[in-house]
Amino acid sequence: MEARQGAGVFVVNHPASTFGALASEMGSRASTALNVLEVRLAIGVESAALAALRRNLSQEASIQEAFFEFERLLQVGEPTGSADLAFHRAIAAATNNPFYVEMLDALGERAILDAISAGDAEGARAAMRHHLASSQQRYRRRLVERQAHYATANADAG
Length: 158
Hints:
The chain is mostly helical and 158 residues long.
């Protein structure tokens, strides 16, 4: 954490970015994939429980939409990787704890690496598209939060 006078305390090193860096360095061995799946299992189980308790109607709709897209792709025999990740990400978002989303996004970076290593151009394209869209959403959310904080601070000062 880093304290900045007049601005607050900020997390400097996110656990998700550390995890993503470690996962990327490990390569594409089966043992690594099993370890990543173990972490995904832990994150997925707890995020599902929290999402059941904390979700709002919009988040519930997003989870359902992602699930139906996954099912549609499965039925027509198309790759489901990006839809599966979108489903899990919607659940993570419904926990209303941004660290679940960040951890899942770090695992998404692992999906990019795995697709490239497997020579899966479509999978790599979908994983990268999802990763960049997720990053874009995070930055937009942070901008909105900063604007709200600034507006509140100015209202309190005035």
